[in-house]
Amino acid sequence: MNERLKFFRYAEISDADKIINIFNDNKWLSKYKHAYIQSKIKKNECIYESGVIINFTLVKKKFNIGNISVYPNNTLLDQIIRENLSLKNTYAHHVFTKFLNCTTGNTYLIVDINNHRAINFYEKVKMVKLDEYISKDEKKKKLIFVYYKNYNMDLN
Question: How confident is the model at residue 56 (pLDDT cuts 50, 70, 90)?
Answer without folding.
Answer: very high
